[in-house]
Amino acid sequence: MSKIKIGLFGFGVVGRGIYEVLLKSKNANAEIVKICIADINKPRTLDASIFTDRADDILDDPEIDLVVEVINDADAAYRIVKKALCSGKDVVSGSKTMLAFHLEEFIEIQKRCGSALLYDASSCGSIPVIRNLEEYYDNDLLLEVKGILNGSSNYILSRVFDHSMPYETALRQAQELGFAESDPSFDIDGLDALFKLVIITVHAIGAYVHPDRIFTYGISSIHESDIRYAREKNVKIKLVAQVAKISESDFTMFVMPEFVPPSRYIYSVDDEYNGVVIRGECYDRQFMFGKGAGSLPTASSILSDIMARQHRYRYEYKKLHFQDKPSYTTDVRLKIYVRYSETDIPSLLHFLSVDEQYVSKESRYLIGEILLSELMAKRDALRGKDVFIANIPTFFTDLD
Amino acid sequence: MSKIKIGLFGFGVVGRGIYEVLLKSKNANAEIVKICIADINKPRTLDASIFTDRADDILDDPEIDLVVEVINDADAAYRIVKKALCSGKDVVSGSKTMLAFHLEEFIEIQKRCGSALLYDASSCGSIPVIRNLEEYYDNDLLLEVKGILNGSSNYILSRVFDHSMPYETALRQAQELGFAESDPSFDIDGLDALFKLVIITVHAIGAYVHPDRIFTYGISSIHESDIRYAREKNVKIKLVAQVAKISESDFTMFVMPEFVPPSRYIYSVDDEYNGVVIRGECYDRQFMFGKGAGSLPTASSILSDIMARQHRYRYEYKKLHFQDKPSYTTDVRLKIYVRYSETDIPSLLHFLSVDEQYVSKESRYLIGEILLSELMAKRDALRGKDVFIANIPTFFTDLD
To answer: Does the CB of B3 have a partner CB in chain A at under 8 Å?
Structure first.
């Protein structure tokens, strides 16, 4: 097999990790021949001749077989990946934001142009979720994929919860350790988990759902009283993303904080780790656990995709063509906890039933049944308010 | 894609599970057209016309594309799989004993005859260990695979340990629940875990090591005093199979009870579950957890292999051709606990150093460093004795 020639876009934390991992891996039979970066004048550890700031130096180079794209700018990533795929170059990408918005188009382009796009590193870093959903759970027995997909929000919640650290300190620490993005809203508002969930759902259910159609609620409004409540009930608060079949004909998706009891697998997924539960008919629950982010874990996942391409591996998107595929719905009853102070939650949110209501000088909360579609309809009204929402899984997801 | 026609060998617990799973899976596009069984006169739930007791009714039928083999008799399984592969039929097999002894030959036959053999169900039932080692961890970063690979011995140890059940009662219960084979020695002497480890190692390291060359020690001689000792030290006793690189040039393998502290992933793998830790450079540790055995979990794994063959998937055995592959060695220092009564362990086993020695009216034990090769040399002398050995992981495997 001839040596694969790689053009790399991005030489930040992950890009440098890929360079390092390829050096370590004697049998990879792949070589980075050109690296495209935004700032050509920044001092680098490698010889200057390998760098360029012109994307076309890679995209138009017929010697380069494979584009590896790990840049932060989603729009630039989109243009690069699209041009590469259209010109017949294969691509390995780690850009979840870009993929979550453009995956449908990329599936079509791959088909039309014969090129292949692999992106296991985009969801859960070193945990091979996409590959397993695509290859191993490639039948219609799958019922649910649920997990902690964002390492930095999980790190923050672990610090706050297990170490009684103030939220602000935990956030700062996550940033210092490099787990959180410099703009932390991406992590703590649940967007990172949402984008990964969109990608996962394509391979889990065979359906692409636009991020805007999915209820997403983050952890930034968590309050001491929420933590106290969870401790009293002997549960942890985790930011959970899930896609689940709720019947033969429907599935639902959402990202929100959840009260997780000790009996669940994801209860013990702490710090910057990710954990994914795959539940299906016949095989029940499988749990995959590992480092979801970071330079080398992500780079090792990229390496797996690079080597897969050497063996002509591509996603088949088999489930997109399944018969009797379920449709996306938000017409699902959830039991939720809503803690609020000024916002008049009882007037704002229409509950189907209310189980508990608590009012004190310090905090107020309400526990009840609500439709996911109602949360979707009110999400703009809820944004930025001193309101914290957590899912209490009792309805369709009582098994994990 | 045309419907795949399957000839099934075996209609026991797993065989019936496969039949059921294929009925459930609308998109499998596969049909069992003939089932070969040992006793044609036994009453069955299906129409008699589907059954035969002549293997050649399947093997010589040109209409049948794929042989699925899930029988207990390893010799018969060998003959069936060999004939099928040699005549160009693809095979999905769940027979770990047969595979552990004949995998080298089957790799050669696949190459020569162009047919494909898949066997993910043979190791850890529904957990896709083989597929992930082959496809995702397909580089030379992998350092170690370690896990609880046998559900019934783990079930027994969980009962004994967490529920203070007498060993004999736990064993009987495991048999009643269908976790243990009717001849339980296969499970409790570690053979089942050993055979799975042999198969896993082919895909983890790219090396086939004959089962006879691997030190294997089971749990049948466990004693109340061993359990008491482990409880005092706040560890659990688990039957652990492992393969680990100990240097750039060497790797080692063994199956034996191990003292597992709460910080390790496998500590919380209880009852009939399996758990596998994959450790590598860059990605650190990944943990996969699920139901390792049972009718439907195993059948769902077989279904994955059946669907993989529809998409022309085959194992590439890439690592067999890696440069600078490590060699198998037993020249490894282990720290072990040996509890004994009559057998004169201090004379029988040569320890490199002794850390602790304990003698009371009720029990004696010794903790010290020993070469794995010394345990290998004395394994016949240890067999059937009132001796219990447990690995205390401190040397090369202190990370999982």
So the answer is: no
- Of B39, B95, B32, B41, the C-alpha closest to B61 is B32
Q: Choose among A27, A128, A316: nearest Cβ to B136.
A: A128
Interface test with B, best of A136, A303, A317 (most B CBs within 10 A): A136
* C-alpha count within 13 angstroms, C-beta hemisphere, residue A60: 5
Which chain A residues in 243-272 lie under 8 Å from chain B, judged by CB atoms? 265, 268
- The Cβ-side half-sphere exposure at A209, using a 13 Å CA radius, reads 28
Please indicate whether, in this complex, the C-beta atoms of A21 and B141 are within 8 angstroms of each other: yes
Helix (H) or strand (E) holding A92: strand A90-93
pLDDT, tens digit, 9 for 90 and up, residues B24-43: 888 888 999 999 999 999 99
| Mean pLDDT per 10-residue interval, chain A, length 400 residues | 91 94 89 96 92 97 97 96 97 97 98 97 90 88 95 93 91 82 86 97 97 97 94 96 96 98 91 94 90 86 93 92 93 97 94 96 94 97 95 62
Compute the half-sphere exposure of residue A237: CA atoms within 13 Å on the CB side of its CA.
30
Q: Do A297 and B284 touch (CB under 8 A)?
A: yes
| Cβ of residue B309 closer than 8 Å to a chain A Cβ | no
Instruction: State the pTM of this model.
Output: 0.91
Q: Which of A136, A139, A289 sits opposite B128 (nearest CB)?
A: A136
Can you list the residues of chain B whose pLDDT is less than 70? Answer: 1, 181-182, 395-400
ipTM of this complex > 0.90?
no
Q: Which of A283, A132, A203, A131 is nearest to B300 (CA)?
A: A283
CB < 8 Å to A326, chain B: none
Contacts of A140 in chain B (CB under 8 A): 25-28
